[in-house]
Amino acid sequence: MTLNQLFYAITVADARSMNEAARLLFISQPSLSAAIKELEAEIGIDIFKRNNRGVSVTPEGMEFLGYARQVVEQYRLVESRYVDKRNVKKKFSVSMQHYSFAVDAFVKMVKQFGMDEYEFAVHETKTHEVIEDVKNFKSEIGILYLNDFNEKVLSKLFNEYDLEFQELFKCGIYVYLWKQHPLADKEEIGIEELEDYPCLSFEQGNNNSFYFAEEVLSTYRYKRLIKANDRATMLNLMVGLNGYTLCSGIICEELNGSDFCAIPLKSDEIMTIGFLKRKGMAVSPLGQKYLEEIRKYKNCLI
After folding, report:
1. What is the C-alpha separation between 180 and 196, in angstroms, rounded?
2. What is the side-by-side strand order in the sheet with 163-171?
3. Of 99, 122, 193, 242, whose CA is between 20 and 30 Å from 12?
């Protein structure tokens, strides 16, 4: 296996056509096809599925290309620094469930780099996509939670994807609502007291199993349930419909404003907030700095 073969495979995947990839690589189409076939024979899988309309990446090929992109990117970084003698952009990417404190930690990390050149990415997204992003090297780190209900299923998936979960902190369950909500002045709220108000939940798309829910008590039979796909919509529904959601209790007024509050739910449920990473891969200095910022929120638990 050569670096050129990896680069060829990535180019074909991006172009979705052998002919177009050959044109971009300035080589003949037969030579490119032969190189890809040799690579597939060596690694023992079909990276691409060929048809009259072009090529598509197989599931096995998708995993292989994730590793290939990592190798090629690392080579380019080494080449830029030690061969071309150019300054290299600092790079970091994180995917997360819809946690405002995780976004705020990202903001604080970025601010520390001033005018240095960097290329950072933050993906606030669905649970399964957080896992897929780390698996496929789209993100170095994924932020999500485990509890007694979802831990067995998600841990099995982590193992299949060669990922590992590490704890950041544990927290109880809180009801997150508008400060003008009829229950906002209570010191503690029972789940039965919430029946007359809509429960707000983040939409999980095709992976809508209870195990992928971002909110605990996902199997509870809510009388009123509304699904949303972003945090801003969720906040608007809290104000407009006296809706609520269940959360970690970490308040981030810098991003969500001061019009919302978190009140303890009468429950023994515990959430373990943590991060995903590839097994055997060290967290980069940027990733360590991000985790350092996010761990500070342990002191903000109410």
Report:
1. 16
2. 118-124, 90-96, 141-146, 271-278, 163-171
3. 122
